[in-house]
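Entry:
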Amino acid sequence: MEADIARVLFREAAILGRLDELALQITSDYRDRELTVVAILNGSFIFMADLLRRVPLPLQLDSWSVSSYHGTKTSGTIQFRQTQIADVRGRHVLLLDDILDSGLTLQAIRDRMEKESGAASVRSCVLLRKMVPRTCPMEADYVGFDIPDEFVVGYGLDYNERYRNLPYIGILTGEAIRRNAR
């Protein structure tokens, strides 16, 4: 797998240091509130685990399985893999996602959460924000890192279900993309 990485953008130590900063900000913002965290799977599970261990607040946790990527590009179609959402009436919800790219997925989740849940508030936190024009005007409330318009893997992010277990975030080689294409 290491040979498939053209360049490492963020090593594990840098990621964990940034998570410490995000956790301090989230803890301060949600002190004395009923917090529910909704993680968007599968890409955010490593990010979620490492971030939430740093947030010393009582919270509820749920996850949604949602996808929009096929290969290295977003399909533009959002697939919700479950029909029921968590009971968050009157609670403050923090959506966790791995990457903000087109904005379509996070906007669809936020819209559904706001319309169907009765939540007191809905905010979002992403590990990565790709610096590209958004298809919709979605921005995250908390951002780990800004990245260039490159396809990245590692730390939960995948390419065709591979590379999630890398402890860093990197850019695949063209050869690795061709070899692992479906």
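The two ends are 18 Å apart (CA to CA).
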